[in-house]
Amino acid sequence: MKSFSQLLLNLYRGALEKPTGEFRDWALDESKSLIAFDSCLWADGSWLDGQPTPHSVHLHNLETGFISNWLKYQHEDTLVRQMHANNDRTFNVDCAVTFSGTSIYEFHCKRFDMEHIVATATIDADTQLFNSMSLYRANPDAPFSEADRSLKEALFPHLVAASQSNLLTNLPHLFTANQQSAFNAIAVCDTFGTLRVAMPSFVETCRLEWPGWKGPTLPDCVREAMRGGGGVEIYGEAHRGLHVLSG
Question: CB burial class (10 A; 0-12, 13-18, 19+) of residue 1?
């Protein structure tokens, strides 16, 4: 418990100190103090019309061809379907058993040294934003334990929250003094009004104002305001076309 607590303190401190481009690799390296793993896929995005739309896919110690190769065999990836059907649950998978006799095992798992996986996905009911993370081990004789699986399940929401805080912390030039004092009532969206990050108080404000609203797309009147229609406070534009909104 002490080591878990110390890791959380490190993550939340690092969220304030690390550049966004470095944070995820740093956070994953820190996490190895609790759970040993060789590589990782960390993705986030929007869930729209029953399909995931990734915003970012972070590969940790994986070749850049990982995603394009996976797309060839995604129809055999039963784990992905299980993850998205079981919100917040972490799965412990022995690839040689689960994917026995499949092309995805022979030509994807083996190629990228994925013999054992612990994987988690979560979809926020209000914003429809999803996060997923899979940790991989290369050694067939070194499976993840139930303790590893439980630790991953407990750690995952903290990694997501720290990553969101890190993104917001690295957009300080867009914040007014009032926004900085009400950090929890902030959201970040792209130029089309699709949410990237939405803090809890911002979501609560939206639900009070528009009871039937559900993400990941902001209400029409908010998107109109982003185009200059007024009515909602919009603060600036960051790099890569991100906007900060105050609830």
Answer: exposed
127-184 pLDDT, tens per residue? Answer: 888 899 999 999 999 999 999 999 999 999 999 999 988 887 776 555 555 444 455 5
Kindly list the distances between the CA atom of residue 115 and the CA atoms of 119, 126, 189, in Å, as whole numbers in the listed order.
13, 35, 37
Region of residue 231 (phi > 0: left; psi between -120 and 50: alpha; otherwise: beta): left
Contact present, 188 and 244 (Cβ < 8 Å): yes
Rg (CA), the chain: 19
Which residues does residue 62 pair with via DSSP β-bridges, in sequence order?
none
Q: Is 198 exposed, middle or buried (0-12, 13-18, 19+ CB in 10 A)?
A: buried
SS3 199: coil
Long-range CB contact pairs, 186-190, < 8 A, 24+: 186/244, 186/245, 186/246, 186/247, 187/244, 187/245, 187/247, 188/238, 188/242, 188/243, 188/244, 188/245, 189/218, 189/226, 189/242, 189/243, 189/245, 190/241, 190/242, 190/243
How far is Cα 169 from Cα 114, in angstroms, rounded to an integer? 34
